């Protein structure tokens, strides 16, 4: 009986640790007048809330995956992210309210470098 109780307890703890293994979040690294740099973790099938961006950005995915961007207007774009290959996103691409969706089955981690006060980064 003790072994069964131990197994059930350990199984439950393993399940809880798996359930908490992925958390969609943002981790800020740098923020000043020239740039803002953060890492976003997007769990599989997770949707980020509607948001906008004031500046152009460079996005560097830590792993390959697929990110769908859905605008409030109904427009949709799908980005096929290639591991460690930067993507430039213009200021215009971020101005309209949109959601980002990890449509894949793996966690996505992306480093975002926001280019502030850069006249050529539009």
From TrEMBL:
InterPro entries in the cross-refs: RmlC-like_jellyroll (IPR014710)
Keywords: Signal
UniProt signal peptide: 1-19
Record protein name field: Cupin domain protein
């Amino acid at each position: 009986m003790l072994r069964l109780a131990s197994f059930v307890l350990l199984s439950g703890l393993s399940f809880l640790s798996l359930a908490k293994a992925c958390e969609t979040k943002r981790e800020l690294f740098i923020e000043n007048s020239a740039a803002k740099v953060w890492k976003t973790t997007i769990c599989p099938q997770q949707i980020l809330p509607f948001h906008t961006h004031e500046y152009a950005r460079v996005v560097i995915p830590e792993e390959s995956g697929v990110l769908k961007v859905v605008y409030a207007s109904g427009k949709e774009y799908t980005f096929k992210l290639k591991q460690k290959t930067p993507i430039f996103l213009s200021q215009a691409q971020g101005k309209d309210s949109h959601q980002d969706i990890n449509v894949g089955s793996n966690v996505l981690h992306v480093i975002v470098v926001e280019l502030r006060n850069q006249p050529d980064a539009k």
